[in-house]
Amino acid sequence: MASFMQNKKLMVVFTSVVTMVAIAVIVTLIGSDNSQSKEVLSDSEEKNEENNQLEEYKDPENVEKGEETDKEEKDKEIHNKDEKDDAGEQENKDKEEDSNSKISSHSNTTKIEKSSSSNTSSSTANNTSSNTSSSDDQEDEPVITTKTTSNTQSIAYKTVKQNDSSLEKGKTKVTQNGQNGTRKITYKVTYKDGSQVSKEQISSEVTKQPVNKIVKVGTKASAPTYILASQAHSILGSSGMSKSGSQYSLGIRSYPTSVIVKVGSNHVSSVYYNSGPYKALNLSKSDLISMFGEEEGTKEYNAAQKELNKIKRAVRAAANSVYGAGTSKANALYSQMIGAGSSYSKSF
Questions:
Q1: pLDDT tens, 63-85?
Q2: pLDDT tens digit string along 156-183?
Q3: Which of 9, 56, 102, 277 is 20 to 30 A from 19, alpha carbon to alpha carbon?
Q4: Domain count, the chain
Q5: How far apart are CA 181 and CA 172, in angstroms?
Q6: Tell me: the pLDDT tens digits for 199-240?
C-alpha cells in the first residue's frame, strides 16, 4: 500500500509538471492575451492545491475515498479545461474573422480603386483608339473619279427582196447595194483609287443610217423554148403525115383532119387534134369479136390498132416538133392532146 501511495504521489507531481509546461506554452503562444493567461495561472494554482491535498492522504483507509475523489475532480478538471480551451479557440476564431474581414474590406477597396483605374485607363485607351481610327478613316477615304467615254459600233444593213414581174421567174437582180450604218454609244466610267469599278451606258445615237440591199426576184414565166422550124420540118416529115406547103396533116378513114400541124418561119405556130377517130378505134378485141364475130372481129381489131398507132405517132411528132423530142414539155403536150375529150388546139 505504501508503494502504491508513493507512485500515486509521483504521478501527481508528474502531472503538475506537465500542466505547468503546457501553461507556459499556451502563455507563449497567446502572448498578449492577459485574460487567458490569468485563467491558466488560476487553473494551475487550483491543481497545486489538489496535489497538496492528495499528500495528506496517508491513512490507508482514506486511499479508496481519495481515489474516487481524485477521479471525480480529474473529470471535472478535464471538463472545465475543455470548456476553457473551446472558449479560447472561439475567441481566437472571432479575432481572426475580424482581422480577415478588415483585410477583405481593404482588398475590396483596393480592387475597386484598381477597377476604377482600369476603367479610366480603358476609357482613355478607347477614346484614343477611336480618335486614331477616325483619323485613319479620314486618311484612308477612297478617291472616286468619273470619266465619259464613247465608241462607234457598226449597224449591219438588211437585204430586202422584191418581186419583179418584168424579170423571168428564177432570175434575181441587185438594184441597190447595201451599206452598213454607224452608232455612237457614250458611257460613264467610275474609278476608285484609279481602278475602274463600273461602266454605265448613258446614251446611244445613230450617226449614219444603214442602206438596205434591194434584190429583185423575177416572177414572169420564162419564155418557152421552141425548136427551129427546120428541125420541126424534119420531125414532121418522118411522121407519116401528109404535107401541104408548111402544113402537115393526118386523115383517118372518114376523118381527114385528125391531126394538123402548121410550121411558121421560126418554129411551129399551131397544132390541132381531133380525138373522135382515136376514140372510135380504141375498142377492145372482145368488143369487136362480139360485134363482128371471131374472125371478122379479130380483123377489125388489128386494123384499128394500126390506125391508132398512126394517130399516136402523128400526135407525138406534133408535140416533138414544138419543144424537141424527149423534153418534158413535149411529153406534157402529147398527154394533153391524146387525152383530150373532143378536140385540142394551141398556138405558139
A1: 444 455 556 666 666 666 556 55
A2: 999 999 999 989 888 999 999 999 999 9
A3: 56
A4: 3
A5: 25
A6: 999 999 999 999 999 999 999 887 778 999 999 999 999 999
> Are 9 and 105 within one domain?
yes
Given 176, 194, 220, which residue is the final one in a domain? 220
- Yes or no: say if 155 and 183 are a contact pair by the CB < 8 Å rule: yes
Q: Does residue 131 form part of some domain?
A: no
Of 157, 190, 220, which residue constitutes the final position of a domain?
A: 220
What is the strand order of the sheet 255-263 is part of? Answer: 242-244, 247-252, 255-263, 268-274, 343-347
Determine the structural domain holding residue 165 and report its residue range: 144-220
Q: Read off the CATH number of the domain in which 173 is found.
A: 2.20.230.10
Residue type at position 146: T
C-beta atoms surrounding 298 within 10 Å = 14
Does 70 lie in the same domain as 16?
yes
